[in-house]
Structure formats: C-alpha cells, structure tokens
Amino acid sequence: MDSQEAERAKILSGALPFIRALAGKTVVVKYGGAAMTEEAARVALADDLILMGAVGIRTVLVHGGGPEIDAMLRRLGKEPVFVGGLRHTDEETMEIVQMVLAGKVNKGIVALIQRRGGKAIGLCGLDAGLLRARRLDSGPDLGLVGEIVGVETEGIDAALAAGLIPVVATVAAGIPGEAEVYNVNADTAAAEIALALGAERLLLLTDVPGILRDLKDEGSLIREIARGELDGYIAGGIVSKGMIPKLRSCVRAVEGGVGSAHIIDGRSPHALLLEVFSERGKGTMIR
Fold first, then answer.
1. How confident is the model at residue 242 (pLDDT cuts 50, 70, 90)?
2. Which of 60, 78, 137, 241 could be joined to 73 by an S-S link, Cβ 3.0–4.6 Å?
C-alpha cells in the first residue's frame, strides 16, 4: 500500500465512529445565500447529502434563496426592499417569493440531487401543513413575514421512510384569520424543523467560515461556543447583523434538545462532510 492509499484508508476509517454515532439519527441542513450560487459547491453538497443518506443518516435539507428572489424581483421591475437587514414582503413580493422558492429553487435542488444519483422530493411549508405561521408583530413592519407557530412533520417523515431526501422551501401557511401564506426566515425554519424531528444535529451552510473574532482573518475562527457566551459575543460586536439570527436559531435548537448546531461555509466543497464526519470539523459548533 503506497502513502496515498494509506492516507485514504486512514480518512475512511476515521469517519467510522461518526457514521456509527449518526446512523438512524436525523440531521437538518440549512442551505442559502451566496453558498447556493457556486456550482462546484452545489454539486459537492448534493453528493454529501447522498452519501449521508447511504450510511443511514436521515437527512433533511431546508433552503432559502435570497439572491434568486432579488434577481427575479429586478427582472420584473421591482426593487427589493429591506428593513434592518430583513426583507419587506408585500403581496406582490410574496407571490414572487413563493414562485421562486417553492418552484425554481426547490425543484432545481431536487433535480441536481437526482442527477447525482440520489432521490429527493421537493416540499414547502404549505405541504401537509408542514409550517404554520402568524404575522411577525415584533420589530419593524415587514409585511407578509411570519413567525413559525407550528410544525407538522408527517410529510417529511413519509419522505424519509421512503428513502427520499426531503428538500424544504421556507414559506408557511398562515393561521386562521390571517394571510394565506407567509415568508419565513430559513434559519428559523430549519431550527424549528430540527426540533420537531428530534434531530441530532442542525447545520447552517452560509457564506462565511463560521464565527470569526476578526472578520478579516479566517484564522480567527471560533470553533466552539457555549450558550452562555452568546450575549458577550453580540455585545462585543463579534457577532452582528445577519449572523445574529443564525446564532439565535442555533441556540433555540440546542436549548430545545438538538444535540449540536453548526455554522459552516457552504461555499467550500464538502464542508458538510468534514463537519459531520471529523472531530475538528470545519466551522463553528454551538453546544
């Protein structure tokens, strides 16, 4: 056996304890933002999801699609509007969000997984009552943006039992007396789905390596954060802007019983496998 073969064998054998620990368990992966636009990373993610399923991990993919929504809005002559970094969603924008997320983006991911040899099924929060939401009434007025008040996992459970990878677009049905459909934050939706499924892990794939002490220095990656450290990181400005809701979603998940939550760089091919099947991991873990 030459040195390259020995190294490959070492890598494969090193993954075995992690495969054993997660076999039969549920892992929820959230995919969104700029991480969705790089083709090599998209293909690698599909392969990672297929491999995880092949070794017995119940894998669920939850996705957003902000760049695609922005592009479609502009094609239709409508400029995206953000309030405090969050998308304002009027009725026309909601129609476009639903069309892009549940149609173009969702089915594109499903098609990619199947081209790579896997089997996937596209779902959105409206299917089988998966996500229920009420209008978000805290903070600035964001229009048809909702907060999740209920999760029904029957559709996801059926897909997993059939050996399929559920791919979930994050629009939600409104509660009685409110709007028919709401735009919901994909990080929040992933956390709530992970809780409802009793997931072992929640992984958020984004466009940064994880939580950095210095945004200009990727070597300053914080590999593990305990719940009690979160407020200090926010107060110190280490965690700010769009990373705050991501981290809060992770905290919500682990406080509710998810084993661990992770923020990793979805632009890096096979970052998901490195985070799941190695001790050191690739991003930031929240316990």
1. confident
2. 78
Rg (CA), the chain: 19
Q: List beta partners, residue 211.
A: 222
Superfamily of domain 24-286: Acetylglutamate kinase-like (3.40.1160.10)
Overall average pLDDT of the 32-58 stretch: 90
Neighbouring residues of 148: CB distance < 8 A, sequence distance ≥ 6: 131, 132, 133, 172, 184, 188, 189, 192
Say if residue 31's pLDDT is above 90. Answer: yes
Main-chain dihedrals φ then ψ at residue 196, nearest 5 degrees: -65, -30
Mean pLDDT of 41-59: 95
What would the mean pLDDT of 111-124 be, rounded to a whole number?
A: 97
Distance CA(220)–CA(61), nearest Å, equals 29
Amino acid identity of residue 262, one-letter, is: H
Q: 217 exposed, middle or buried (CB, 10 Å; 0-12, 13-18, 19+)?
A: exposed
User: Which runs of E-coded beta strand occur in 101-200?
Assistant: 120-125, 131-135, 146-151, 165-174, 181-183
| Cβ atoms < 10 Å from Cβ of 132 | 20
Q: H helices within 23-141, ranges in order?
A: 39-54, 66-75, 91-99, 106-115
Distance in angstroms (rounded) separating the CA atoms of residues 66 and 257: 29
Q: In this model, does residue 1 exceed pLDDT 60?
A: no
Number of DSSP helices (H) and strands (E) in the chain, helices first: 10, 15
Locate the domains of the chain by residue range: 24-286
Res. 228: pLDDT tops 80: no
pLDDT at 57 over 90: yes
Strand partners, 28: 60, 202
> Going by C-beta distance under 8 Å and a sequence separation of 6 or more, which residues neighbour residue 144?
89, 90, 91, 93, 94, 135, 179, 181, 182, 183
